[in-house]
Write a structure and sequence with these properties.
By secondary structure, this protein is an alpha/beta fold. The protein is 45% helix and 25% strand. It contains 4 helices and 5 strands; from the N terminus they run βαβαβαββα. It has helices at residues 9-18, 32-47, 64-69, 96-115; strands spanning 4-6, 21-27, 52-57, 77-82, 85-91. A 5-stranded mixed β-sheet has the order 1-3-2-4-5, with helices on both faces. Strand 4 (77-82) and strand 5 form a beta hairpin.
Length: 116
C-alpha cells in the first residue's frame, strides 16, 4: 500500500475518519531520524495492508495546525488512530522490529476490541 502524503487539514480528517486503522508519521525534511524512518514506514505500509499509513510534513503551513492539535513537540512522532481516535503515540526513530511490533500490538488490540 502506498503512503498517503497529507497536504491539508481536511485531507487529514478524511483519512483518519474513513479508515479504521491509520498510522500517521509527523515529520520534517531537515530531521535525520525522520529520514531514517521513511523507508521503514514505506516498507511496513506494504506489510500491514489493513492499516493506512499517512505522512504529515510539519514544515508545510497548511498542516501545522494538526501538529498543534496533537501537541507534537518532537519529530518524528507516530500516532496510531483507530476509528478516528488517537490510541497510541511513539516519539523518535526506532529499529524496524520495534516499530513493527508497535503497529502489530495496536492493530491486534483493535481486532479484540471490535470483537469484544
Amino acid at each position: 500500500m502506498n503512503v498517503v502524503h497529507i497536504k491539508t487539514e481536511s485531507e487529514f480528517e478524511e483519512v483518519i475518519s474513513k479508515n479504521k486503522c491509520v498510522v500517521v508519521d509527523f515529520y520534517t525534511t531537515w530531521c535525520p531520524p525522520c529520514r531514517m524512518m521513511a523507508p521503514i514506514v514505506e516498507k511496513l505500509s506494504n506489510e500491514f495492508t489493513d492499516v493506512v499509513f499517512a505522512k504529515v510534513n510539519l514544515e508545510e503551513k497548511d498542516v501545522r495546525s494538526i501538529g498543534s492539535k496533537f501537541k507534537i513537540s518532537a519529530v518524528p512522532t507516530f500516532i496510531y488512530f483507530r476509528d478516528g481516535k488517537p490510541v497510541s503515540t511513539v516519539v523518535g526513530a526506532m529499529p524496524e522490529a520495534v516499530f513493527r511490533q508497535w503497529i502489530r500490538e495496536n492493530y491486534e488490540s483493535g481486532i479484540s476490541y471490535s470483537r469484544g
